Amino acid sequence: MRVMAQMAMVMNLDKCIGCHTCSVTCKQAWTNRKGTEQVWFNNVETRPGQGYPRGYEDQEKWQGGWALSRSGRLKLKAGGKWKKLAQIFSNPKLPELDDYYEPWSYEYENLLNAPEQKHIPTAPPRSLLTGKRMSIKWSGNWDDDLGGTYAVADKDPMLKGLEDKVKLEFEQTYMFYLPRICEHCLNPSCAASCPSGAIYKREEDGIVLVDQDTCRGWRMCVTGCPYKKIYFNHRTGKAEKCTFCYPRIENGEPTVCAETCVGRLRYIGLILYDADRVTEAASTPNERDLYAAQRDLILDPFDPEVMNAAERNGIPYDWITGAQESPIYKLIKDYEVALPLHPEYRTMPMVWYIPPLSPVVDVVKDAGYDAENAVNLFAAIEDLRIPIEYLANLFTAGDVDIVADVLRRMAAMRSYMRDINLGGEGDPMIPYSVG
Ligand code: SF4
Ligand code: SF4
């Protein structure tokens, strides 16, 4: 057993209101400069929807990128020919600018300087790349207005085969938000695809970074990352990605996105994992077993054997106690309510999600704030407005039962808390509770 420490994040999707504060504060901190206009280390996607960049989950479209990068790397090492080099430069597996969006601002001065006219002057969009006026054809969250209808059904690859579950009635439509950062994977394919060896996973805390001095702008990492969470800076010609705000983490502060999150839905912490078993877990034959394989890599930080092995591997004692106190371990391992995004990509992602219950109001109200009853109501889990198969396609490679268990647990917890806080039996452990 080789125990290593990893920074990880859990996000509770029930609490995300899609305010984009996290994205904006992250951009202000990290990518508010020329060359990174379309770069969102943190973005918040509308689901159902196409995601950002558009269609990144359509792995068939991007398939082969990693293999191409491998062969490119081998040829180059062997002193490869210009033909191969040209093939690498024209890497066909990259998202194009239209898959991100053409960045723009508005002509605000027009509001003040427009000549007198019959209508109120407008502030038309102007491209930040060409400086010319433009019409906006697409951008992230374009799907907001479509709210889970047929208009997005044929564009969201995770809705494939679920067309009959798409709700058309206004009262039945649904939408939720999926905030995304780099997954700081245990098995990062971005690093594996880099011909220059510029991408590395930090020994001490598992944060994945790009060495800007070593990066040669091959962009194989953009192709190789199945989450498309690594971006190309068109000014510097280098790759850039979420840094998990490592200077803040080293200072004992949370990431900017977590600190500014309006919904307080981001939990950050250290976990301990067995580095010797990562490759084996990533090679688990059945996709639906990958979630369990990934969860099993996380070690019990209270186990004396694990604590000893961690110390032997140079992990400081206060980091081990940090892992013991971390909410991450509890949410992933004790309560088993946090799930990885697309475990079938096999990179062992370390950002985990508690799937959304919404809309749960009716269920909890009908249950009379009774946790047991809420669980029973969820027996008819297929009646939930968000198709459970859709959530399963996002978080468990299609295993509906795992998602159903998580939702039942969350419904029971919520019902219990409402019982305490909204006039049911008072919890003697909570002195301020009503009841
Ligand atoms: Fe690399 Fe992508 Fe994993 Fe981030 S999400 S570590 S960029 S493979
Ligand atoms: Fe969601 Fe928090 Fe980001 Fe707002 S700040 S969009 S609540 S993750």
From TrEMBL:
Its cofactor is [4Fe-4S] cluster; [3Fe-4S] cluster. One of its GO terms (molecular function) is electron transfer activity. One of its GO terms (biological process) is nitrate metabolic process. It is found in: Cell envelope. GO terms for cellular component: cell envelope; membrane; nitrate reductase complex. Its EC number is 1.7.99.4. Its main location: other. Keywords: 4Fe-4S, Electron transport, Iron, Iron-sulfur, Metal-binding, Oxidoreductase, Repeat, Transport. The keyword Electron transport applies. Residues 7-36, 173-204, 206-235 form the 4Fe-4S ferredoxin-type domain. The keyword Iron-sulfur applies. This is Nitrate reductase subunit beta. The gene is narH.
